[in-house]
Amino acid sequence: MSIPDETELAPPSVPESVEPRELESRVLTLWWITASARAVLISTAIFMAFLLFVPNINALSWLLPVGPGPFVVAVVVWAIIVPPLRFRRWRYALRSDDLWIRQGLLWRSVSVIPYRRLQFVDTRQGPLENLFDLAQLVVHTAAPGTSGQVPGLDRAEAETIRERLAALAGETDDPV
Amino acid sequence: MIPSESDAEPEGAGPVLARPDGGEPEPDGSGFEGEASPEEETHPALRGIATRLPPSALGIWVAQSLIGLIPLALVVLVGTMSVRLIFVLVVAFQVGHVITWLRFTWRLDESSLIIERGLLMRQRRVIPRDRIQTVDLERTLIHRMLGVTEVRVEAIGAGDTEGALPALEPWLADRLRRDLLGGRGRPSGRGGAEGASVHRGADAPASPGPDEVEGSVELERISARNLLLAGVTGGRVGVGAAILGLVSQVAPAEWVARILLPGLEQFPDPMSMAGLRLLLFLVGMAFLVGFLTSLIATLLVHWRFTLTRTPSALQVTRGLLTEHRDTVPFRRIQAVRIEENWIRRILGLASVKVVVAGRAGSAQGGGADLVLPIGTRRRAFELAGMVVGIEDVGVPELTWMPDQARRRRLLRAVLVSLLLGVSGAIAATRVEAWSPEMVGPVFAGVSLLPSLILAHLAWRGLGWADLGSHVVVREGALTRRWVLLPLAATQELRTVSNPLQRRRGLATLELHIARPVGVLGAPRAVDLTEEMAGELRERWALRLARASGRRGGRADEPG
């Protein structure tokens, strides 16, 4: 059994030392918009559910604003506070050998995707993102279910990164 | 078209039992090799000319559809369907087969295997050689009667078998296999997997052609006795039990009991002694049936299991009714799994599977190909190490997960028992004879010890080891699943933690490899300390990036 080469361990290469970057702050506004849209939808659904499933709704009409109230408040609060928390958690770094991504509020994750494992690199842009001049970077490897996504990049920036990573992906070794 | 006057058929039918020794395998008599005369060497399809399958392919389809029609024929016998209708159906099927056959062509050019088929919807599939993962040969009973072999080519992409040639002459099938796997593969950058073949004859580059057979070494041959052992200790016991469970769902237990015990007048109250005895009897029967199913299935599927190493690939030959010869190139192997269920662990036995990306038919092998159905633990690891290119692995000594990981599991076990107690108490309120105050604690108490033991075992099953170029991770409470993988096979390293893990400062490190979608999860080290998970992620990512140094110029630092 070969012993790991300890010299390799010498620089523990702490990710934070490679200046992880935040997303563009504009993406926070965008997240707020999508989150409130979702909150409105969910609240409506909750109201509908009450209308449908609470019997004798007339006799209990006072319940209509009160009953769903807590749920709706929860949904709204969620929509307000989660995006900034998510934003604060989000970091990415283009390190010398790999792409480093930190994300997730409850289920936190840190992904490291070596450049030499890249299969292809996309940028994506929805209509809303277009409005904010933002774009999403998506990198794919040969492993199923692994696509690193970095949302909320400045569009020009995203394109630059994509080109750079795509060039790297071109010279990768046989992945599988 | 080459007429398929196959001499392979008698050989195929006669098992190799007659083989005198267990020495170096010649082109063995399993029916996968046929004699090729010189003019056959220039089969048109191999020269890039679109060619139909031999007419016997038609025979296969006809036979398969006839077998499929047997249930229908039974319906006729019972008399609910007119004979004429059946006849029309049968004829229609056969005409369909003829058309399929006429429109099915294949050829091989320098870079790809090309299969064209379909009448109205023409399908043309081009599989580049360097995308091919594995090539499997298969001979069902029908194939063997007609003296042909089915070729299945797997690549990454579509979920099914990417290229299937339902029937070819045996020599041609074998030739095609070697041609597809042997040629043009540039030496892979993955030192590990290539190094795997170093032992004997590995200095010769993987070249196409018959010399591949010469460099091959038989690694393992599972005797009938060991196969029996594999069946007895195998995991297929569950399958049989599940089938019986299903039957008992469909058919009421009373009914089953009547059949099994004709003398029984009335199904006894399950709470009474007689009822309990009957219940135990039925459970016992379930186990017995499961056990026998397991045994027979293992024997049929792995009969005469032989593992051979050629300079560039692993080859498995097996099967009693349906003969298989699966070929997996070393450079396509992403990881090896060593599995020990609890019975096997007691006996010091294990099985070995290889993980190959894009493998179809994952259900059978759990998404991986079995290369050793059963063997001693030491042998299993020796083989596993050889496959991924490290010598002398031994049984790796693992680092255990921290004690927080155990406490987390123990707490969970206690909570589960409490939950069981509560639900038992709730259930008891509905049964007059039971009192919730009694049943609740009894449920909780009885389940506590087993779940605590399981929790401890689950923790004990966890572990990891760093072997330099390779990594070992292990999981599993009753069945321990080791994964041994070359670091170079990882595509992404990811640490994840949920709130409960973070409360105890734990995290899981996932090593994502190219693997079949679905069945298997990524190899992972569960419940490392957060610091350790982060450190290993960085350490291994760095080692992976610097490994072969093939890409000299590094990317620019982020600006």
| Quaternary structure | heterodimer
Show unreliable segments of chain A: 1-17
Shape of chain B: globular
- Mean pLDDT score of chain B, rounded? 78
Q: What's the helix-strand series of chain A?
A: HHHHEEEEHEEH
**What structural class do you assign from the helix and strand content of chain A?**
alpha+beta
By CATH reckoning, the class of the largest domain in chain A would read Mainly Beta
Terminus-to-terminus distance of chain B: 64 Å
Main sheet of chain B: which strands, in order across?
7-6-5-11-10-9-8
Strand % of chain A is 15-25%
Structural features, described:
Chain A has helices at residues 6-9, 26-53, 63-66, 69-89, 127-131, 155-170; strands at 91-94, 98-103, 108-114, 120-124, 134-140, 147-154. Chain A is elongated and about 70 Å long. Chain A has 176 residues and is an alpha+beta fold. Chain A folds into two domains: 26-85, no CATH class; 92-170, Pleckstrin-homology domain (PH domain)/Phosphotyrosine-binding domain (PTB) (PH-domain like). In chain A, a hairpin with a 6-residue loop joins strand 5 and strand 6 (147-154). Chain A starts with 5 loop residues before the first helix and ends in a 6-residue tail after the last helix. In chain A, the strands form two sheets. Chain A has a three-stranded antiparallel sheet. Chain A has a three-stranded antiparallel sheet with strand order 4-5-6. Helices cover 42% and strands 22% of the residues of chain B. Chain B is built from 18 helices and 20 strands. The chains are: A alpha+beta (176), B alpha+beta (559). Strand 3 (108-114) of chain A pairs antiparallel with strand 18 (490-497) of chain B, so a sheet runs across the interface.
Short description:
The complex is a heterodimer of chains A (176) and B (559). Chain A has 176 residues and is α+β, with helices and mostly antiparallel strands.
